[in-house]
Specification:
The N terminus is likely disordered. Helices cover about 5% and strands about 35% of the residues. The chain folds into 2 domains: about 280 residues, no CATH class; about 240 residues, no CATH class. The strands form 7 sheets. Strands 12, 15, 20, 21, 22, 23, 24, 25, 26 and 28 form a 10-stranded mixed sheet that branches. A hairpin with a 2-residue loop joins β5 and β6. The protein is mainly β and about 575 residues long. The chain contains 4 helices and 37 strands. InterPro entries: LRR_5, LRR_dom_sf, Surface_bspA-like. It holds the Pfam family LRR_5. This is Leucine-rich repeat domain-containing protein.
Length: about 575
C-alpha cells in the first residue's frame, strides 16, 4: 500500500501505509515552551492495500490518538478522535518542546469498540457476533519529541486478513462459505499487545459468485489476532482447528465441505486458503494454506526523531516466516512458493511432504531456478517427515553423476534450514552442492549423516551431537566448515571430512570407544593439510588410538583430551 504524503508546515503528518518513508526528522533542542501541533492522518483511498489481493482494503473512516507526557507521567488523551477533513483526520493540541511523549494511533473502517475509560489501551470488536470487522491500523512511539519539523509515521495493520482464493474458475451463482471459531481479542495500541477474552465466537462468511468473482479472491475478512513478532508475551498467533470451507453449486441444496486444521492468523499478515473450490463437489480437494507478509514493511520512520519505529514492540525481532501448510503430501507448487515468499527471503512449510514437494523446492532454488538468488531461510520444523529423500536439495540424479566433477546446476538459493524433530537421518546427498547453505539446524533425533550429505556445501559449522554414524564423503570439500560436534561415534567412513582445510575444531568427546572406520582417510590425504584443526576426544586411550591411525593422522591435526573451549 502506497500513500500520498501530505507535508503541512508546522504539522506532524501521519500516513496510513505499509510503504517506507525516508524523511529524516532531527528536532533541535529548544528551551521549555509550549508548541501548538496538528497531527494529520492521511490515506490515499485508491491505493490502500499492497496486499496483492483482488479484493482491496477499505479506507479508514475514523482515527484516534493517545498521548502521554512521559516527563510528567500524565496521560493527556486516551482516545482523542480525529476531525475529518476530506481524506485527512486532524488532531490539534499543545505540547511542551522540552518533554517527551508516548503517542499511539488507531484507525479503522468500523466494527471495533474503543473503551470509554481505557481508550486506545482497550480496543475490541463492537459486537463479538459481528462477522465482518474492517481493516484496522495502529502504531506507537514511546519517545516522541515535539519540534517545528513535519514528521511522518507509518501505521502497520493491527489485524489479520483472510483470503479465500479460487485457483481455477467457479460458476456464477455458486455459493462459497467459510465457518470457524474465532478467539475474541482485546488489543492495546499503546502496548501493542493482544489479550484473549474468555469467550469465543463462531463466524461465517459467504459469497454468492458473480461474474467478477469467478476466479481469484472470492472472500476476504479481517480479525484481531496476535503476532509473535509484535510483543513478548503474546500468543504466537491465532490457530483455528475447525476451519470449514463449503461449496454449494447453483440450484442445489447439498453443500460440499472441506475441513482444514491448524489454520494460523497473525496481525499484519494475510492467511490465504487456495484451491479448486468447485472440485469439492467431486473429490476431496486439497487446499494450500499460506501466511503471507505482503502487508509488511519494516522500514517505517519514527515520529519526531531519526530513529525508525521497529513496528509494534521494541524488542529485536526474530525471523518471521511466511507459511505454507500442506494438507496432502505432493501438493506443493512453485506458484505457492512464489506467492508465499514474495520479495522476502524466508519460508515455513508445515504438513506432510514427499519427494515431489522436495523436487519443487530444489527446482525453485537451483542456480537456474526462479529462486536462485533468494538466500532463503527455510523452516521445516513442522514438516511431516521422518526422513529426507536422497538428494533432497541436489539437482543431480545420482551421487556418481557429480562426485569429483563440476555440477552444472548447484543449489544457490538456500542459505539456512531448520529441520524437524523426529528426523533420523540426513539422507545421501541431501545438501550436496548447496553452495550458499551456511546454517543447518539438526534436531537431536538425527543419528546418521548419509553419504555425501553435505558434499561441497557452504556450511560453517556442523552441530550434530546425537549423530553416531557418518557416511563416506559426508562433509567432503566443505571449504567453509570450521567447527564440528558429533555424538557417540560408532562408525565413520572414508573421506567423511576430506579437504575441510579450514577446520579448527572437531568435538568427538561424546565418543566412548574407538569408532569403526572403512576405507582410507577420514580427513583426506596429506595433500589436504589441516594445520589449524584440533580434535577433542574423551580419553587418552581414544587419543592414542586415533592419533596414530593412518586413517586420522595424515593431515596432521592436533589432539586434545577434554571439552574444547568456547567458540
Amino acid at each position: 500500500m502506497k500513500i500520498n504524503q501530505f507535508l503541512l508546515t508546522g504539522t506532524v503528518a501521519l500516513i496510513i501505509t505499509s510503504c517506507s518513508q525516508n524523511d529524516d526528522f532531527s528536532p533541535e533542542p529548544i528551551a521549555s515552551s509550549p508548541i501548538n501541533m496538528t497531527f494529520s492522518v492521511s490515506a490515499d483511498a485508491e491505493r490502500l492495500s499492497r496486499a496483492g489481493t483482488d479484493i482491496p482494503d477499505a479506507a479508514p473512516s475514523r482515527a484516534y490518538m493517545y498521548i502521554k507526557d512521559n516527563t510528567n507521567n500524565e496521560i493527556l488523551q486516551k482516545a482523542m478522535p480525529g476531525n475529518p477533513n476530506g481524506n485527512l483526520f486532524e488532531f490539534s493540541l499543545e505540547l511542551d518542546r522540552s518533554h517527551t511523549y508516548t503517542v499511539a494511533f488507531w484507525a479503522d473502517a468500523g466494527g471495533y469498540e474503543i473503551d470509554s475509560t481505557a481508550g486506545l489501551e482497550s480496543i475490541k470488536y463492537s459486537d463479538t457476533a459481528n462477522n465482518s470487522p474492517s481493516i484496522a491500523y495502529a502504531q506507537c512511539n514511546t519517545g516522541f519529541k515535539p519540534s517545528e519539523s513535519t514528521a511522518t509515521i507509518t501505521l502497520q495493520h493491527a489485524v489479520a486478513k483472510l483470503v479465500i482464493r479460487e485457483s481455477s474458475v467457479i460458476n456464477v451463482g455458486d455459493r462459497v462459505n467459510v465457518t470457524f471459531t474465532r478467539k475474541n481479542y482485546i488489543y492495546s495500541a499503546v502496548n501493542q499487545s493482544y489479550k484473549a477474552e474468555s469467550d469465543n465466537t463462531t463466524v461465517s462468511f459467504e459469497k454468492t459468485v458473480d461474474s467478477s468473482t469467478q476466479s481469484g479472491d472470492i472472500i476476504s475478512a479481517y480479525m484481531l489476532a496476535p503476532n509473535d513478532s509484535y510483543k513478548a508475551g503474546n500468543d504466537p498467533s491465532m490457530l483455528v482447528d475447525d476451519f470449514c470451507l463449503t461449496y454449494t453449486p447453483k440450484g442445489e441444496t447439498t453443500a460440499h465441505r472441506q475441513t482444514i486444521s491448524n489454520v494460523s492468523f497473525k496481525a499484519n499478515h494475510r492467511t490465504i486458503i487456495e484451491g479448486n473450490i468447485m472440485s469439492l463437489s467431486k473429490v476431496s480437494q486439497s487446499f494450500s494454506v499460506s501466511i503471507n507478509t505482503g502487508w509488511n514493511d519494516n522500514n517505517t520512520p519514527g515520529i519526531g526523531d531519526e530513529t525508525p519505529v521497529p513496528g509494534p514492540g521494541d524488542e529485536p525481532q526474530p525471523t518471521v516466516y511466511p507459511e505454507i501448510t500442506l494438507t496432502t503430501a505432493g501438493t506443493l507448487t512453485e506458484a505457492k512458493l512464489i506467492e508465499a515468499i514474495g520479495s522476502g527471503n524466508s519460508l515455513k512449510i508445515s504438513g506432510p511432504m514427499n519427494d515431489a514437494d522436495f523436487k519443487v523446492l530444489r527446482t525453485y532454488l537451483a542456480s537456474d531456478g526462479n529462486g536462485s538468488d533468494k538466500q532463503l531461510a527455510l523452516n521445516l520444523e513442522n514438516a511431516g517427515i521422518t526422513a529426507l529423500p536422497n538428494l533432497a536439495f541436489c539437482t543431480q540424479l545420482k551421487l556418481d553423476d557429480f562426485y569429483g566433477k563440476e555440477n552444472p546446476n548447484p543449489i544457490s538459493g538456500l542459505k539456512e534450514i531448520l529441520l524437524p524433530d523426529g528426523l533420523t537421518k540426513i539422507s545421501d546427498g541431501a545438501f550436496a552442492d548447496c553452495i550458499n547453505l551456511t546454517d543447518v539446524t539438526i534436531p537431536s533425533s538425527v543419528t546418521e549423516l548419509g553419504e555425501m550429505a553435505f558434499y561441497r556445501s557452504g556450511i560453517t559449522e556442523l552441530l550434530a551431537s546425537s549423530v553416531s554414524v557418518v557416511g563416506g564423503n559426508a562433509c567432503d570439500n566443505c571449504k567453509s566448515l570450521r567447527y564440528a560436534v558429533l555424538g557417540n561415534l560408532t562408525k565413520i567412513l572414508d573421506c567423511a571430512f576430506k579437504a575441510c582445510t579450514e577446520m579448527e575444531t572437531m568435538d568427538i568427546t561424546r565418543t566412548t570407544a574407538v569408532p569403526a572406520t572403512m576405507g582410507n582417510d577420514i580427513l583426506g590425504g596429506a595433500q589436504y593439510p589441516t594445520p589449524n584443526l584440533t580434535i577433542y576426544v574423551s580419553s587418552q586411550a581414544i587419543l592414542d588410538a586415533l592419533s596414530t591411525s593412518t586413517k586420522w593422522k595424515l593431515t596432521n591435526p592436533k589432539w586434545a583430551v577434554g571439552t574444547p573451549p568456547n567458540k
